Input
Amino acid sequence: MKLKNFKVTVTCVEGACSRSRAGTVFYVRNARLEIPDGQSVCLFALGSILAPLIAASVPTDPENDILGITREFQCPDPLSKVIFRIDEIN
Output
């Protein structure tokens, strides 16, 4: 099965988050996580976007594609607001 590929970008950080920085990017290619040198991803934040990434990676009808509904997802930390944007790439 051919899986979709994604670029994930931290678009916004508000509050006391010390693990995420706006502009951080990572990639999901063929269901593998690729993090560029010098960057990192918080496990709590990653956990919150895994389900949407998995759902979006499988080809589906456009009306059932989660990224057709929203491309932005928030970390579950109640003390900080970290927003991730998921974009499909080739």
In short: Residues 5-89 form one domain. Strands lie at 5-15, 25-29, 32-34, 72-74, 80-89. The chain has one domain: 5-89. The first strand starts at residue 5 and ends at 15.
